[in-house]
Amino acid sequence: MPQLLAFLSDYTIQNVMIGAALLGISSGALGVFAVLRQQSLLGDTLSHATLPGVALGFMVSGSRHLGSIMFGALLSGMAAALLVLILTRRSRLKTDAALGIGLSTFFALGVVLLTRIQQSGNAAQGGLDSFLFGQAAAILRSDLWLMGALTLAALVLLGLLWKEFKLITFDPLFARSLGIPVVLLETVLTLLIALAIVIGLQMVGVVLMAAMVVAPAVAARQWSVRLERMVLLSALIGAGGGIVGALLSATGANLATGPLIVLAISAVVAFSLLLAPQRGLLRTALERRRTAAHLRGSRVLVSLQRLSAQHGDRSYRVEQGMLNAYHRQDTGAGLRELERRGLVRRAPHMPEEGTHWELSDRGHDEAERVLQGLDPGNGTANANSSGSNSASSSSGSKGVHGGG
Amino acid sequence: MVAAELLLNIPFVIIATGALVGVAASLLGAFLILRRSSMLADAISHSIVFGIVVVWLLTGQQSGPVQIAGAALTGVLTVSLIELLARTRLVKNDAAIGLVFPALFSIGVLLLNLYAQDVHIDTHTVLLGEIGFVWLDSVLLGGVEVPQALLSMAVVTLVNLVFVTLLYKELKLMSFDEGLARTLGYMPGVLFYALLTLTSTTAVAAFDAVGAILFVAFVIVPPSAAYLLTDRLWKMILYGSLISIVSSVAGYYLAVLWNVSIGGTMALTTGGFLLLALLFGPRYGLIAQELRRRGQYSANDRRALVVHLYNHEGSAGQEEENSLPALRGHLHWSSGKVERVLDQAQAGSLVAVEGEQLRLTPAGRSLAREILEPWRKTEGTSPA
What we know:
Order of helices and strands of chain B: HHHHHHEEHHHHHHHHHHEEHH
Number of helices of chain B: 18
Number of strands of chain A: 3
Order of helices and strands of chain A: HHHHHHHHHHHHHHHEHHEEHHH
Helix content of chain B: over 70%
Oligomer: heterodimer
Largest sheet of chain B: 2 strands, antiparallel
Distance between the termini of chain B: 76 Å
Number of helices of chain A: 20
Helix content of chain A: over 70%
Radius of gyration of chain B: 30 Å
Shape of chain B: elongated
Largest sheet of chain A: 3 strands, antiparallel
Radius of gyration of chain A: 31 Å
């Protein structure tokens, strides 16, 4: 414990943790809107497109001054967003191509400018590399003030325009009909997402900031259907993943921060997708299995009931092998499940034969209930002709099973 | 032996490598753009880093057939993961792309950090490539020193060319009408995976030259520029390839001039061509669009004028309505507009001006009739 405390009170470690938390909060909260509006890849384009701005900010200020680099990055990110907008609105190119064009041409420009700086032999250029993959240790206390101020500004703007953002996210057409300036608000939202990307640039890097916009929001989406909670959760996940990744990077030797943060949050995403209580894959898979087993049991039950009705014998015994052949699958598990529920029971049989089953009274009631529940209209219409009734309801039950 | 000498010419080797990257990528990119899956190329070229590092750690090979095979697998892995995620319906397709490739890319970079401190595939090359040094690494082929990157790019380009030529009809159908392709049994799904696999192998072959991210520019930008220039698929592929070749040449000399990254300027030049196509494209360019719109405006004004004159022709108010002041007073046209429209209408001999009075010519009258009573059009002109 004392070592941990000493570790946590270390000046650099504190810087890194605060920086990671700020980055996670801003990109987590704003990423929710990108993901819900199905603009996840806009984040990808914006983050790659900040590179020329980073280089230009460096060139203008002549040093690794975070303020000018952030400002340049924001400008070039917005320029790329504008290019994407022009390409999708005014040319025949589709969104995917426009995003790819914005991403790759701006990145190419950034590469050209970066190599230009390297040729100039500026002593401070080494710091620039950290903007590619992120470097937590490079962060200074003064940088934190700037990041904090920008995060605060973004969050305040988000709070002020909360209702409007919510509306244009879920029902932009309705928003337009109310006379809300949708295009302006979309622009502000894009600006805020670009701002969130710029805030995290130094820690996560140009290439991977895209993931910071998408991953926390996707994870949060699995746990909540309310926008308020989703934004809150996404910010928390972003901050948590950010801190874990940044700490690993600051302690472990020579590991880039960006990839560690991205992997930490990706792990949360995987966990959420699998285990989220309502939408999680585990739960839906279990539910599907339970439903399938229940349906299989019901089908066996109905077959037993029909056989006993046709033979005019309420305790008509059926050999399991015959049920298997009839259903073209092993009915053993289904029968045992029905037995547990007291709907069927084993019947005495000759030693050389397989297990025989018969319906209990409750089983008869349950089978009636199932048949009626399948299609009430069908049951009354074909009540007279038992032959056609059995044919139609057997195909009906097959349909339900196939559908399930 | 001219060929052998050319291979010793460093600028030639660099330009040829760049051009081959561009041509190989454009061949595939055209279909990706038409299928609206350009961002899968972005995802693949990022996650390829993962594949390259893993194959290198396992086999120690930095390029060659093993790497190409590994790349194919990585591409398929990436796309399958994306589809798997999207199919759970917990994540939309775009978000699935945005989740998968950063994760794979991150693992690749971390593995590089851990195990590749002093190998030439460092994180810088991963992003930017080093086309300037492709001539350093060469293999002996039939007694001639052939640069490795040039050789593998040539092979990959050839494979892509054969693929696109042989399956041209099927690919075309897949891009424009996937439902029909499926109905006819052309298996567009399988074909699409083949296309993405080739994209991955091309990305790996191009990796040494241009790195992971600049490759995206070569896949998407030249065919997009071509898409703004033509409606024909084969022309789109051809123009895309030509743009790539010219970009490689121009990019090389610009890079030498400015003393910057060659791969970067090559990619940037393709962007320049896109901008040119966007502005000056003959049909879809912004200028052509604007001119067309203006043409339609003025045609509309002329049509309004002849209809106005026709409506009042022979009526009691003809003297007052079919006059210059009425255009200003009744149609609310500015003097400049009146002058412009009348000039154009006279040039098209639709209207004759007699002092203040305006008269329809026979051509103007038949145009007005066509507008007002389009169903009479055939009746009036048919000889019967």
